[in-house]
Automatic annotation (TrEMBL):
The keyword Metal-binding applies. Gene3D superfamilies: Aldolase class I. InterPro entries: Aldolase_TIM, HMGL, PYR_CT. It comes from the Bacteria. GO terms for biological process: ketone body biosynthetic process; L-leucine catabolic process. This is Hydroxymethylglutaryl-CoA lyase YngG. Keywords: Lyase, Metal-binding. Residues 7-274 form the Pyruvate carboxyltransferase domain. The gene is yngG_1. One of its GO terms (molecular function) is metal ion binding. Signal peptide: none annotated. Belongs to the HMG-CoA lyase family.
Length: 301
C-alpha cells in the first residue's frame, strides 16, 4: 500500500474537546494551552465557538480567548459559528476561518440546532455568503454521517445530497463526522466508494470519534482513499452527549504517533504535543484517555 506522504491534522480540542467538560476551564488556561498547541506545529487550531453561552457555557469566553492567544504565522485559528450573529462576533475577533455545522440526520439536526435540515440551509447560506464577503474561508461540519443515536444508519445518498448543497453554498472544505463513534472500517470503505461519485475528496476531511476504539482503523481506510485531512483532539478529549460512555474524539497524540511510525509527515513535534497534552491534563485534573497518554502517565509514576 502506498500511503500519502503528508497528512494535515486539524486540532479541535479547544472547542470540540472542551465543550463537554462540566468543570469550567479558566480563560488563562485555555489561552496557555492554545499557545502550546501553536508551538507544537499545528497549521490549524479550532480555538472556540461563538454559540450563545447558554448552549455551551464552557465556551462563553470565546471573544477573550481570541483576543489573548499568541497568533503564530502560518496557523489558521478557526471558530464554530451557528448564525449571522455568531459570525459578526467571530469577525470582530479577526478569526481566520469560520465553521458552519448541521447534521445528516433529521432528528439529530432538530435536537442539536432546533431546525429541520431544509430550514437550516438558508441560515448557513447567509453565514457562508457574509463570511466570504469578509474575506474568510468557510468550513462545513456534517454530523452523524455514519449513524445517528435516534435514526440509526444514515443513507450515503442523503449524506451526499446535503454535502453537495453545502459545497454549492461555497464552503472551502467539508468535515464528515462520525459523531457517536459507530463507524467501522468496512462501512467507511463502502461509504467513501459511493461518495466518490459526488464529492470532491481533495476538499474533504474526516472527523472520527473513538467510542468503540475504531477511530484509527477508520483513518487507515480513509488514507487508502487518499483523504489527507483529519480532525482530532489532544488526549482524546471530548465525547458525545448522545452516546453513553463515548470516549471522545480521535486522539491527536495517537494519530500523530501512528502516522509518524508509518513514515507520514504531519509537521507536528511529538515532544511539544506531549507538553500540551500534559498541560491540559493537569488543568482538568484527570488522566486523558488516549493510548499515548496512558503510556506517558505510567512512565511518569
Amino acid at each position: 500500500m502506498q500511503w500519502p506522504e503528508k497528512v494535515t491534522i486539524k486540532e479541535v480540542g479547544p472547542r470540540d474537546g472542551l465543550q463537554n467538560e462540566s468543570g469550567e476551564v479558566p480563560l488563562e488556561d485555555k489561552v496557555s494551552w492554545i499557545d502550546l498547541l501553536s508551538e507544537a506545529g499545528f497549521s490549524y487550531i479550532e480555538f472556540s465557538s461563538f454559540v450563545h453561552p447558554k448552549w455551551i457555557p464552557q465556551l462563553k469566553d470565546s471573544r477573550a480567548v481570541a483576543e489573548r492567544i499568541k497568533r503564530k504565522r502560518g496557523v489558521t485559528y478557526a471558530a464554530l459559528v451557528p448564525n449571522r450573529r455568531g459570525l459578526e462576533a467571530a469577525v470582530d475577533t479577526q478569526v481566520d476561518e469560520v465553521s458552519v455545522f448541521m447534521s445528516a440526520s433529521e432528528t439529530h439536526n432538530k435536537k442539536n440546532i432546533n431546525k429541520s435540515i431544509e430550514d437550516t440551509f438558508p441560515v448557513l447560506e447567509e453565514v457562508v455568503r457574509e463570511a466570504k464577503l469578509e474575506g474568510k474561508s468557510v468550513r462545513g461540519y456534517l454530523s452523524t454521517v455514519f449513524g445517528c443515536p435516534y435514526e440509526g444508519n444514515i443513507s450515503t445518498e442523503n449524506v451526499a445530497r446535503i454535502s453537495e448543497r453545502l459545497f454549492e453554498m461555497g464552503i472551502n472544505e467539508l468535515s464528515l463526522g462520525d459523531t457517536i463513534g459507530v463507524a467501522n472500517p468496512e462501512q467507511v470503505d463502502r461509504a467513501l466508494n459511493k461518495w466518490k461519485q459526488w464529492l470532491p475528496f481533495d476538499h474533504l476531511a474526516m472527523h472520527f470519534h473513538n467510542t468503540r476504539g475504531m477511530a484509527l482503523a477508520n483513518v487507515l481506510v480513509s488514507l487508502q482513499h487518499n483523504i489527507t485531512t483529519y480532525d482530532s483532539a489532544v488526549g482524546g478529549l471530548g465525547g458525545c452527549p448522545y452516546a453513553k460512555g463515548a470516549s471522545g474524539n480521535l486522539a491527536t497524540d495517537d494519530l500523530v504517533h501512528m502516522l509518524h511510525q508509518m513514515g507520514i509527515e504531519t509537521g507536528i513535534d511529538e515532544r511539544k504535543l506531549e507538553e500540551a497534552a500534559l498541560y491540559i491534563q493537569q488543568v482538568l485534573n484527570k488522566p486523558l484517555p488516549s493510548h499515548q497518554m496512558q503510556v506517558i502517565n505510567k512512565e511518569r509514576v
